[in-house]
């Protein structure tokens, strides 16, 4: 499963069942003019914010795990 944007050349592989093509494209290349024209700047901003929130939540979870003490 390989998809390429013919506008910016982005290659996306290893799709998972719930992946959405526009979200993945905006996340991996938010500067693609095709995504900007088709979906809009607000969509790209929303995708970036959602990705950052997920990443921050994972980071916070990892920090909590590392702080746990075992006796």
Automatic annotation (TrEMBL):
SUPFAM superfamilies linked to this entry = Inhibitor of apoptosis (IAP) repeat (SSF57924)
- Listed GO biological process terms: regulation of cell cycle
Cellular component aspect of the GO annotation: cytoplasm; nucleus
Which InterPro entries does UniProt cross-reference here?
Answer: BIR_rpt, IAP
Q: Which PANTHER family match?
A: DEATH-ASSOCIATED INHIBITOR OF APOPTOSIS 2 (PTHR10044:SF139), INHIBITOR OF APOPTOSIS (PTHR10044)
**Official protein name in the record:** Death-associated inhibitor of apoptosis 1-like
């Amino acid at each position: 499963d390989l998809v390429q944007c013919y506008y910016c050349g982005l290659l996306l592989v290893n799709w998972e069942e719930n992946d959405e093509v526009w979200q993945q494209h905006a996340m991996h290349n938010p500067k693609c003019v095709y995504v900007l024209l088709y979906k809009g700047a607000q969509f790209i901003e929303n995708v970036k914010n959602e990705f950052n929130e997920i990443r921050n939540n994972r980071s916070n979870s990892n920090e909590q795990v590392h702080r746990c003490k075992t006796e």
